[in-house]
Structure formats: structure tokens, C-alpha cells
Design goal:
Blueprint: E1 6-8, H1 13-18, H2 31-37, E2 50-51, E3 61-67, E4 73-83, E5 86-89, H3 91-94, E6 102-106, E7 117-126, E8 139-144, E9 170-175, E10 195-202, H4 204-208, E11 218-222, E12 237-242, E13 245-256, E14 265-269, H5 274-279
Antiparallel strand pairs: 1-13, 2-10, 3-4, 3-6, 4-5, 5-8, 6-7, 7-8, 9-10, 9-12, 10-11, 11-14, 12-13, 13-14
The structure holds 2-acetamido-2-deoxy-beta-D-glucopyranose (2 copies).
Length: 282
């Protein structure tokens, strides 16, 4: 062991608090408890990135929101629109959750913007091989109504293809996750404006030096200290330029307990799930 603590990038501290209580595939995050205990009126996230400029949208990015007991809709994970009625996210974002309390919002850059479009999650499917912090952290949500695509605020992202993305490729991460290293507690700051960060992929062998549990179903990216994914970014898209458009190559999965502390971010490698995704698009 190298003494590094890994954690999923949803609302980390919760996993530690809750422990295990008879759920399908490992830890289930108690979102009721989280939103009742945390003061998220100042919401924040992507460490070291910058605001998506005003009037610019990341049209495939969606915010997954949880209906709290007090009737508020709270961002807890990211996702990407892969068809008008399908969202790709991380399995750990939905594992054990009640689909009827989750909706997704598209067409916004600011979580405060009430002019976005909301659709209800009808059901979700997690990859059958999912193991937290190990492999296949990917899930697909069926949503209704389907989003209307307008290409500026709302559009789908291409996830097709099984070509393996190598090291040193420029990739773009977007999310509403914590913008400080310490994802929860007094130092957590959650932005309402979507953050973006351009950085580079790392080879799996290099990544494995730190992230020792890494498997072929994952892809890593690394920036210097102070830049990377953080809590609340989970499930969100890592994309790569492909000609004139973008292709999604990763789904935010996990990192080390202190975000952006010079350790790689681990993503689910989308190309490994090409067949699995295609079967679930119809
Ligand atoms: C899921 O949430 C809905 C809406 O809040 C509620 O009516 C239903 O009882 C919940 N189902 C379970 C299994 O908790
Ligand atoms: C979003 O709303 C919250 C709560 O009303 C407020 O504190 C915050 O300043 C708003 N953020 C922006 C970017 O307008």
C-alpha cells in the first residue's frame, strides 16, 4: 500500500459516515442525510478550473439533482446527454437511490438559472460489473420527457467507438464539483457556475503507480497540484476534441481524498463500454 486514500467524487465524507447498510453493490450514499446536514446554500466544484463564460453552454452537460425531504432540488452529480432520453453517469451516483427522487437539468451553466430544462429519471441501469473504486463505474438513466435538442444549450455528446485513448491527449473536464481541495467540511466551496478544466490523459501504467487498483476499464488524467476533479463532479463527462466536435472519453469516477493534490483523477473509460451503451440506447 502507498498510503493514499481513494474516494469517489460525489459527496465523499458521506461514504465514510454511513458505512454499509445492505445495498446492491457496495456503499450507498445517504443523500437525505447529506442535504439535511450540509449547508449548501453556497454551492461549489472542478478545482483550479474556470467559469464557463457567460452565454456559453456545455450543451451535453447535465446536473443530476436530488429531491430533498424539504422539497428542494439539489445538485449531487454530473452526467452527459447521450440521446434525447438517455443520460450517462457513474454507477456510484445512482447505486441504491430511488429514481423517482432524481431529475436531471440541461441547458444551464449556472445552477441558479431557473430557465433550464428538467426531465425526470424513470429508471437507471448500472453496469453489472460495477465495483466501487475498482471497475465499471458507469450507469445509464432513462429520462422522460426527452430533451429537445437546440444545439446551443442542449445537445448530445458522441460516446460511440471502441478505440483506446492513449496518454498525453488533451481532454476537457466540466462540472459543478468543489473548487477547493477539501471537498467537504469548512473548506468546501461549491460554485453555482459550471467550471471547466483542460488537462491531459496519463497512461494506465503511469497512473497505476499511484492509483494501484486501476483496471483497463478506466482512464486517468492529471494536472499539477491544485487542478483536477472534486466532489460533486462525479458522473460528469471528460471529452476530447475529435475533428470539429467532441467525443466523450471518460466519466468522472474517483480520486484521492484530497482533490487535486497532484494525484491522477480516475475516469471510467467510455470506449470499453461501447457495446453496453449501444444496447441501452433504444
Ligand atoms: C421513492 O420516492 C418516491 C417520491 O418521493 C416515494 O413516493 C416512494 O415511496 C419512494 N420509494 C421507495 C422505495 O422509497
Ligand atoms: C445562487 O443563489 C445563491 C442562493 O440564493 C446565492 O447565494 C448565490 O450568490 C447565487 N449565485 C450566483 C452565481 O448568482
Amino acid at each position: 500500500m502507498n498510503g493514499v486514500t481513494y474516494s469517489v467524487l460525489v459527496l465523499t465524507a458521506l461514504l465514510a459516515l454511513d458505512g454499509v447498510k445492505g445495498k446492491p453493490m457496495g456503499n450507498v450514499i445517504d443523500l437525505d442525510k447529506y442535504f439535511e446536514e450540509a449547508d449548501l446554500n453556497s454551492q461549489e466544484r472542478v478545482v483550479g478550473g474556470y467559469d464557463v463564460p457567460e452565454d456559453e453552454y456545455v450543451p451535453y452537460q447535465v446536473s443530476m439533482q436530488f429531491l430533498t425531504r424539504s422539497g428542494k432540488m439539489r445538485h449531487f452529480c454530473g452526467g452527459s446527454l447521450i440521446a434525447p432520453n438517455r443520460v450517462l453517469t457513474a454507477a456510484h451516483c445512482v447505486n441504491g437511490q430511488n429514481a423517482s427522487r432524481i431529475s436531471v437539468v440541461a441547458g444551464i451553466r449556472d445552477l441558479n438559472d431557473s430557465s433550464g430544462f428538467r426531465s425526470q429519471v424513470q429508471s437507471y441501469e448500472m453496469n453489472e460489473n460495477y465495483q466501487e473504486l475498482v471497475t465499471s463505474d458507469i450507469a445509464i438513466l432513462k429520462i422522460d420527457p426527452p430533451f429537445e435538442l437546440d444545439e446551443k444549450r442542449v445537445s448530445t455528446i458522441d460516446v460511440s467507438g471502441s478505440d483506446t485513448v492513449g496518454a498525453d491527449q488533451e481532454v476537457l473536464l466540466t462540472g459543478w464539483g468543489s473548487v477547493f481541495h477539501f471537498g467537504t467540511g469548512p473548506f468546501a466551496k461549491y460554485p453555482t457556475v459550471l467550471q471547466k478544466l483542460t488537462y491531459k490523459t496519463l497512461s494506465n501504467s503511469k497512473c497505476k503507480e499511484t492509483m494501484t487498483q486501476l483496471t483497463d476499464t478506466e482512464i486517468c488524467a492529471l494536472e499539477r497540484f491544485g487542478k483536477g476533479a472534486c466532489n460533486g463532479d462525479s458522473g460528469g463527462p471528460l471529452v476530447m476534441k475529435s475533428g470539429e466536435s467532441y467525443k466523450q472519453v471518460g466519466v468522472v469516477s474517483y480520486g484521492t481524498a484530497f482533490c487535486a493534490s497532484n494525484n491522477p483523477d480516475v475516469y471510467t473509460r467510455v470506449s470499453m463500454f461501447d457495446g453496453w451503451i449501444k444496447e441501452r440506447m433504444a
